[in-house]
Design brief:
The protein is α+β, with helices and mostly antiparallel strands. About 35% of the residues lie in helices and about 20% in strands. The chain has a 5-stranded antiparallel β-sheet with strand order 5-6-10-8-9. Strands 1-2-4-3 form a 4-stranded mixed β-sheet. The two termini are about 25 Å apart. Bound molecules: flavin-adenine dinucleotide. Flavin-adenine dinucleotide binds next to strand 3, helix 5, strand 10 and helix 11.
């Protein structure tokens, strides 16, 4: 472990900054911070440091610059591209944001909330709800992920259709720069064209340009009515038919539109306690559709019914089940949110987080499934996700009875197949989970020289000693 210029060890200096109880060095204490939920990344670290303020983070980053110590910020540790896990060198120190966990203020009239980076997303949603408002960011990991991580990954989730990505929910940020300076940009202004919009640089930067310590976020009125339904469709193309009607009739009231194949429903029914087939007969594809209204339950219900009826008349919807209670609507959502997790029970899976122009999603599903099945006979495609945003989690479960390790070893080949199709369609190989360590090499193949050069210039300008999340993104 490095020493500072005065010969004091970095660990001793970290203890001075945050206190002995917040520098974790025992293996059993560090373990939860060193692997992510799928177990794909396992890292090694001399210590996990748990500061409680921007001032402490500033002191840690100054020390890191003095001593050339790499720092890896971690919020909820639900990231899916390995950015929050230290590498195997044993040099990288994990900086956990979990003690910065206060909601500083909620302003229902001004429709803003100020929260520290370590606030768990679900706690943030609840704080907004207590003030009679809505914080719309919503994703399967919301019980664990933290707002600092959501901002740093520009998380998407299930409500992007109506409210946009995390980027469109952020009004101001407080950030500690890699060199240790604290930038207080906690302004809650809707309009501010006074020069470069610096906060945008840190949103989606995956902890490579600074550590987000707090944010001013937008709140919205809570819809007074909401209807959730499962619609059965013949194909992804038919699902787009329903999307067209729902958009036309519900407009911005269409708050979610999530596609799932039959195999996903079967996996849920088999492995998720309490999950039930949403419709009496099986269908090849399903859409979970949510319509919200400011004019009450009956309006949301009416808009949903009219959307479904228009699609039924056209033959694009075969059947539908509308949730008749809040509990049933929650059950529908629980099934959708459990999908990433539930695939684990079916063995290994090779995953993609991609987006294409919405009209091309059916082609992507068909071409990708065919090409991967040709390479690996028996592979089980499980493409699901945010069809309304053209964003699919295009996952492949191993053939039944196959060797999981051997299947996973073919991940680079499968990624190559899927990403080639996505790129040919003008899509993105990293729609919402980011680049991290997982896709860093792929970035070189999909960004132009000038884009890569601008990214490298930014990184060098903010982090001249390359101490913050080195080897991630760029
Ligand atoms: C079941 C499941 C479902 C998911 N569904 C979605 C989904 O629908 N949409 C979606 O977008 N994502 C989804 N994700 C991915 C993940 O939840 C998001 O990327 C989330 O935003 C990460 O937040 P986190 O707090 O866990 O961040 P972490 O995993 O701790 O960190 C993620 C990245 O941000 C950096 N970072 C963390 N905190 C900070 C900070 N304060 N300042 C600077 N850098 C920081 C880390 O170094 C890392 O590079 C899902 C994950 C799971 C497990």
């Amino acid at each position: 472990m490095a020493e500072d210029p005065a010969g004091k060890s970095v660990l001793a200096r970290l203890v001075e900054i945050v206190g002995a109880g917040h520098v974790l060095t025992a293996d059993e204490d560090k373990a939860p911070y060193l692997t992510e939920w799928r177990g794909y990344y396992r890292g090694v670290t001399p210590a996990v440091v748990r500061p409680a303020s921007a001032a402490e983070i500033s002191a840690i980053l100054k020390l890191a610059n003095e001593t050339g110590t790499p720092i890896v910020p971690q919020s909820g540790n639900t990231g899916l591209v390995g950015g929050q896990i230290p590498d195997e060198s044993g040099r990288e120190i994990v900086l956990s944001l979990e003690r910065l966990d206060k909601v500083r203020s909620v302003d229902a009239d001004g429709a803003t909330i100020v929260a520290e980076a370590g606030v768990v997303l679900e706690r943030l949603q609840e704080a907004a709800e207590r003030a009679g408002m809505l914080f719309p960011l919503s994703l399967g990991a919301q019980g664990s992920c933290r707002i600092g991580g959501n901002i740093s990954t520009n998380a998407g989730g299930t409500q992007v259709l109506a409210y946009g990505n995390t980027r469109s929910l952020v009004l101001g940020l407080e950030v500690v720069l890699p060199t240790g300076e604290i930038w207080n940009g906690l302004r809650g202004l809707i309009k501010d064209n006074s020069g470069y919009d610096l906060k945008q640089l840190f949103i989606g930067a995956e902890g490579t340009l600074g550590i987000v310590t707090a944010a001013v976020l937008k709140l919205f009125p809570r819809p007074s009515g909401q209807t959730v339904a499962f619609a059965a469709v013949e194909s992804p193309r038919a699902a787009l038919g329903l999307l067209k009607h729902a958009r036309k009739l519900a407009g911005t009231g269409l708050t979610a539109f999530e596609l799932m194949p039959r195999i996903a429903i079967e996996m849920l029914v088999k492995h998720m306690p309490g999950a039930r087939d949403p419709l009496a007969a099986p269908h090849p594809w399903y859409v979970l559709i949510e319509v919200s209204s400011g004019r009450g339950e009956s309006d949301a219900h009416e808009l949903t019914l009219r959307s479904l009826a228009a699609a039924l008349a056209e033959g694009t919807v075969a059947d539908a089940a509308i949730a008749t209670s809040v509990a049933q609507a929650q059950d529908f959502w629980r099934m959708r949110h459990a999908l990433s997790e539930i695939q684990k029970h079916e063995g290994a899976s090779i995953k993609h987080d991609v987006s294409v122009p919405i009209e091309r999603t059916p082609d992507l599903i068909r071409l990708g499934s065919e090409a991967v099945a040709k390479a690996i006979p028996g592979v089980r495609p499980v493409p699901f996700g945010h069809l309304g945003d053209g964003n699919l989690h295009f996952n492949f479960s191993q053939p039944v009875g196959a060797d999981g390790k051997a299947f996973l070893a073919r991940a680079p080949e499968v990624h190559g197949i899927v990403h080639r199709i996505v790129t040919e369609m003008g899509g993105s190989i990293a729609a919402e989970h980011g680049i991290g360590r997982y896709k860093r090499e792929l970035l070189k193949g999909v960004k132009s020289e000038i884009e890569l050069e601008m990214m490298h210039k930014l990184k060098r300008a903010f982090d001249p000693n390359n101490i913050l999340n080195p080897g991630r993104v760029v």
